[in-house]
Predict the 3D structure of the following.
Amino acid sequence: MSIGVVACGAIATHIASIQERYELDLTIYPLPPLLHNSPQKIAGEVDALLSKIKPDHEKCVVAYADCGTYGALDAVIEAHHVPRLGGNHCYDIFAGQNEINTIMEATPGTYFLTDFLVKSFHRSVIVELGLDKRPELRDDYFKNYEQVIWLAQNPTPELEKEAHTAASLIGLPLEIRVVGEDGLTREILSLVRD
């Protein structure tokens, strides 16, 4: 029996890449990435999915950081006796918690992008916030932000263009930091090999 991975849909393809690279016996169960727009629902969705898949696997793990659940996810993983990714959010996992803390101390008004958010920015942010229909609300949402940092895992010229478009849509300068997948790889390997 394989290891069941309850995964945030925003990082599921990265996990599949790690699975292939390291020939891991995983079954990945992605949850919708748009749950991040309602983080109070994440713990319940993870709980329900774990309850469903645990009988099918020798081990289960949760590929979510806290992701705005304010400890609710930790209560779920404790009840199920399964581990989860460390950190407060995937930015910590990709760039390292110290790096994110340093950025936030220097510029608290930083809006972070990952590869997934760059690719899905129109749907995940613009449409979800209603800015496609009411663009005048942009400043209401983003007036306290000063910059966008794309934590690029696998940058391409196409993604870079999309990242610039995303930043310009919310009226902020873009900085690109190539962070790769090493942080996520370490975390996933630690979860599945412990």
Notes: The radius of gyration is 17 Å.
